[in-house]
């Protein structure tokens, strides 16, 4: 691990940020249900004397997903406001610009397998994407900036966001006034990265993440006895052919120089009986693209492929294409600002540029409106075996990275406001 030059106040917070991260890790909450997490953040802000507004945002999907597609997929959306989001505000010593620092709060629906003594206490819910780290880091960054509000001009907004994992919580917070009163000029976020060693940070100038969409396909066949397949239409078989055929949209209809992914994460058919041909089958997956033309082509072709294959096999297929997060584009000048902020803390040798990836990120909605960037906080440690990627049941972080996260987010805010 690189040796960071931490401010004494931030170094003194190391144990606290670790303790708070562990509490959040042990009590994960799914998207749009982050009630305890929001209460924890609010109580700590109140204790510190930092003003905040609670009940911000909610389900962002109605703002960017087609109503009919949601209905076909059987998705019922939740309220877009009055949710668990929190916006804390810190005014500097004199008027100036306004910057957002974002920390998302939600966890994933998966069982933790780390065996850590601070592992999740909630069955089948886990902070496998590091949002516990993000929340704890931004909360402690708020404490530092509040203590030093006489040292910068302008305003810092701390954005504690619900529903990042597919629910567009950032978009809902925007619709709920995040970028106004005062008007926001720039925004920054951090994200843990186990592929970057602890003690380093990274960023991706320009396009950093993919357009992230979802697709739902329901196959209607004809149920029957497994011993009389000729009298039925096997929806499971039809679904399997559709799953395989969808990959040809990447391998044979997409320019090999253009990155794109179709992944079907769920295929369901039948009710557990071995001798019943199921009448219905469903496929649910994700589509990742970098090029808008490729995105539109795949959006058009998936329902055509599904429908035609189903028809050829005597079935029907109903498709819902759920347009999701846009590609996240980091402003190059803001990446350079992150680099400048990092130099006195970890040195130039520990600041890396990272290739773009096909992950999805709803901070993209914020960066559509204002310039900014996402910083990758290195949390990997090969010696300790902390190399599992996010969304893995054994994902964990090297907590020595946490005070560096606080130092970096503090420095980024002050560099921007005083620059």
Instruction: Report the count of strand segments.
Output: 16
Estimate nothing, just give the exact number of structural domains.
2
Count of helix runs: 12
- Termini separation comes to 30 Å
What order do the strands of the largest sheet run in, or round the barrel if closed? 1-2-4-3-5-16-6-15
List low-pLDDT spans: none
List the helices and strands in order.
HHHEHEEHEHEEEEEHHEEEHEEHEHEH
Q: How large is the radius of gyration?
A: 23 Å
Give the helix proportion (percent range).
Answer: 25-40%
User: Would you identify the CATH architecture of the largest domain?
Assistant: 3-Layer(aba) Sandwich
Q: What coarse outline follows from CA principal-axis ratios?
A: elongated
Largest sheet: 8 strands, mixed
β content, as a range? 25-35%
Give the full name of the CATH homologous superfamily of the largest domain: Zn peptidases
Q: Could you give a quick summary of the protein structure above?
A:
With 419 residues, the chain is an alpha/beta fold. It has helices spanning 8-12, 14-26, 35-48, 67-72, 131-147, 169-175, 235-246, 248-251, 292-312, 332-346, 364-367, 402-418; strands at residues 52-56, 85-91, 94-104, 153-161, 186-197, 201-203, 206-207, 211-220, 224-225, 260-269, 276-277, 280-289, 316-325, 329-330, 351-353, 372-380.
């Amino acid at each position: 691990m690189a040796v960071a030059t931490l401010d004494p106040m931030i170094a003194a917070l190391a144990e606290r940020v670790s303790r708070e991260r562990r509490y959040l890790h042990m009590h994960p909450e799914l998207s749009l249900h982050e009630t305890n997490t929001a209460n924890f953040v609010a109580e700590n802000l109140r204790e510190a004397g930092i003003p905040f507004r609670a009940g911000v945002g909610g389900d962002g999907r109605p703002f960017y997903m087609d109503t009919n597609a949601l209905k076909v997929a059987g998705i019922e959306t939740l309220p877009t406001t009055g949710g668990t989001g929190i916006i804390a505000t810190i005014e500097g010593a004199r008027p100036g610009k306004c910057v957002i620092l974002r920390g998302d709060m939600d966890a994933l629906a998966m069982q933790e397998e780390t065996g850590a003594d601070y592992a999740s206490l909630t069955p089948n819910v886990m902070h496998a994407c590091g949002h516990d780290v993000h929340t704890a880091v931004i909360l402690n960054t708020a404490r530092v900036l509040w203590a030093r509000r006489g040292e910068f001009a302008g305003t810092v907004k701390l954005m504690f966001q619900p529903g990042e994992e597919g629910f567009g919580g950032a978009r809902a917070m925007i619709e709920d006034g995040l970028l106004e009163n005062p008007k926001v000029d720039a925004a920054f976020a951090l994200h843990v990265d186990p592929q970057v060693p602890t003690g380093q940070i990274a960023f991706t100038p320009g396009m950093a993440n993919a357009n992230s969409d979802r697709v739902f396909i329901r196959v209607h066949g004809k149920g029957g006895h497994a011993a009389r397949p000729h009298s039925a239409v096997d929806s499971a078989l039809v679904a399997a052919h559709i799953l395989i055929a969808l990959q040809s949209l990447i391998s044979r209809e997409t320019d090999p120089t253009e990155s794109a992914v179709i992944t079907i994460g769920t295929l369901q058919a039948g009710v557990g009986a071995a001798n019943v041909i199921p009448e219905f089958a469903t496929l649910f997956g994700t589509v990742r693209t970098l090029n808008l033309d490729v995105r539109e082509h795949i959006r058009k072709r998936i329902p055509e492929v599904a429908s035609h294959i189903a028809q050829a096999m005597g079935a029907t297929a109903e498709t819902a294409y759920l347009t999701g997060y846009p590609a996240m584009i980091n402003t190059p000048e803001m990446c350079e600002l992150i680099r400048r902020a990092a130099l006195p803390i970890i040195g130039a040798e520990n600041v890396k540029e990272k290739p773009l990836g096909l992950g999805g990120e709803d901070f993209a909605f914020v960066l559509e409106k204002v310039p900014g960037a996402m910083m990758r906080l290195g949390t990997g440690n090969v010696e300790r075996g902390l190399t599992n990627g996010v969304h893995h049941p054994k994902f964990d972080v090297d907590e020595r990275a946490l005070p560096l996260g606080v130092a970096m987010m503090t420095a980024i805010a002050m560099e921007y406001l005083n620059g």
